[in-house]
Specification:
Helix content is 39%, strand content 14%. The chain is globular. It has one domain: Rossmann fold. It has a seven-stranded parallel β-sheet with strand order 3-2-1-4-5-6-7, sandwiched between helices. Helix 1 packs across helix 7, helix 3 packs parallel to helix 4 and helix 4 (110-131) packs parallel to helix 5. It has helices at 21-31, 43-55, 69-82, 110-131, 157-177, 203-213, 222-233, and strands spanning 9-13, 35-40, 61-63, 88-91, 139-145, 182-189, 244-247. It binds nicotinamide-adenine-dinucleotide. The site of nicotinamide-adenine-dinucleotide has 27 residues, from helix 1 and strand 5.
Length: 264
């Protein structure tokens, strides 16, 4: 298929269903001719991911829990056995105990702090370690972050701290892998109703607040995240690395509540 991504192939990690941010990116990449492999967490998700993969002409699925280094090794070995080289990797994975995505950050437990950091931040480093050798001619690594890394968002708590670590990892990885022409970037997406987001306390309030106060006075869609993902995975962004690119209807630039926003 012709297109911006013709002849390119890569791994999409983190599709859970058709509302996943990773799915928005997968659709945009496929529409421009990319060949896609998908990793999913656990057998239960396979039955959701397989039909979606088929929609974008892929039969290449890999089971992978990113908190388990042996499973990551195995998934990348299976990826490399069929595709010795790849051009991009999309990491759209985050997790925390939902009991700690409400209430106060000060109450975070050590166990959940470590688990959240492992799955939501370290796993991107672990994926970069395993993907880089498959990118001898360069490539693009992309992850997903949120504004709660930069500023306090109610209930985002330990996930905000993990996203801050993730965003800083993007910058260090960009420096380490830049000499190999491997670019490393993140999309900081505005709030979107997904499975992961439903674990965040009072997420509806966050959605409404962003809708009323962002410069565009609306929320963003997974297809808009997909458009930015396509840009960052493709050669259109060949000079861009270490970047945290906001796709949030402009919310990150505001300093105060919009004058025209009604109370919620
Ligand atoms: P989602 O629930 O569709 O996707 C989250 C994915 O993480 C799921 O596919 C899940 O299986 C996977 N995952 C969790 N733990 C895992 C593990 N141990 N091993 C492998 N996979 C694991 O939700 P989403 O909102 O599309 O989330 C994707 C990314 O986007 C996350 O990093 C999230 O923090 C980020 N993000 C989401 C929003 C939003 O508002 N939805 C905003 C900004 C950033």
């Amino acid at each position: 298929m012709a297109g911006l991504m013709a002849g390119k192939r890569g791994l999409i990690m983190g599709v859970a269903n058709d509302r996943s941010l990773a799915w928005g990116i997968a659709k945009a990449l496929n529409a421009q001719g990319a060949e896609l492999a998908f990793s999913y967490q656990g057998e239960a998700l396979e039955k959701r991911v397989r039909p979606l993969a088929e929609e974008v002409d892929s039969d290449f699925l890999l089971e992978c829990d990113v908190s388990d280094m042996a499973k990551l090794d195995d998934a990348f070995a299976r990826l490399a056995a069929r595709w010795p080289t790849i051009d991009f990797l999309v990491h759209a994975i985050g997790f925390s105990d939902k009991n700690e995505l409400r209430g106060k950050y000060v109450d975070t437990t050590l166990d959940n702090f470590l688990m959240t950091m492992n799955i939501s931040a370290y796993s991107f480093v672990a994926c970069a370690q395993r993907a880089a050798p498959l990118m001898p001619n360069g490539g693009s690594l992309l992850t997903l972050s949120y504004y709660g890394a930069e500023k306090v968002v109610p209930h985002y708590n330990v996930m905000g701290v993990a996203k801050a670590a993730l965003e800083t990892s993007v910058k260090y990885l960009a420096m380490d892998l830049g000499p190999d022409n491997i670019r490393v970037n993140a999309i900081s997406a505005g709030p979107i109703k997904t499975l992961a987001a439903s674990g965040i306390g009072d997420f509806r309030y966050i959605l409404k607040w962003n809708e009323l106060n962002s410069p565009l006075r609306r929320n963003v869609t997974i297809d808009e995240v997909g458009g930015a993902g396509l840009y960052l995975a493709s050669d259109l962004s060949s000079g861009v690395t270490g970047e945290i690119h906001h796709v949030d209807a402009g919310y990150n630039v505001i300093g105060m509540k919009a004058e025209d926003a009604p109370d919620i």
